[in-house]
Amino acid sequence: MIHTTPRLRIRPLSIGDAADFFAYRSDPEVTKFQSYHSSTLEDAQLLIRSMEGRAFGKKGEWLQLAILHLADKKVVGDLGIKPEGYDERVVEVGVTLSKAYQGQGIAKEAMGAVIQSLFQQHGVHRVLCYIDVENAPSVAMFESMGFRREGLTIQSFCNKGVWRDEYLYAVLSSEWKQ
After folding, report:
1. Measured between alpha carbons, how far is 96 from 64 in angstroms, rounded to an integer?
2. What is the pLDDT of residue 31?
């Protein structure tokens, strides 16, 4: 699964991305709302190696895609996609972006390209995401993309030893306007 937008190339992570991946995934501010945090470069390499050979479509299995900034020639984030175990036409998504590249529409551009492909090329019916209730920038981004808040899950996610509440957001293929 490879996509190109005016500023970005979205492609599977490769071992050559480990240093860039580690640089932003080891930043506590970037991973504040996530359970995964790279403590060492070796952690990053291990995660990337675990993704080698994965293709989109296996139920219940995350595929992490690199967000490559074309002008800067570096990986500035990653995007995760996971077909749900009960039906591969329902896909969960998530995105992580380097602090230096936040607020520039990069996450939205990358996510938009991938969601468009999920609906048009992969026959996906519904895309969903869970967002920590305190993650206002992600809430704003997904709402601006036409996602609707469908629910609130109470203490549904343990992050760094603290039980967190999350919003459930989703959009259907018939609602997608991109």
Report:
1. 10
2. 84
State the total domains in the chain: 1
CATH code, domain carrying 74:
3.40.630.30
Q: Encoding tokens for residue 79?
A: 């995007």
Count helices and strands in the chain by DSSP H and E runs: 4, 8
CA proximity to 95, closest of 148, 62, 138: 138
What the block records as the tokens of 81 is 């996609």
Q: What are the strands, taking DSSP E only, across 25-124?
A: 63-69, 74-84, 87-97
Among candidate residues 169, 122, 124, 114, the one with its CA nearest the CA of residue 146: 169
One-letter amino acid for residue 15 of the chain:
I
Q: How is residue 78 written in tokens?
A: 């990653």
Which tokens sit at 95? 């995105």
Flag whether the pTM goes above 0.85: yes
Which of 127, 138, 125, 124 lies closest to 167 in space, CA to CA? Answer: 138
Across 160-177, b (16+ Cβ under 10 Å) vs e yields eeeebebbbbbbeeeebe
Q: Does residue 19 surpass a pLDDT of 70?
A: yes
Which helix (H) or strand (E) is 129 found in, with range? strand 126-132
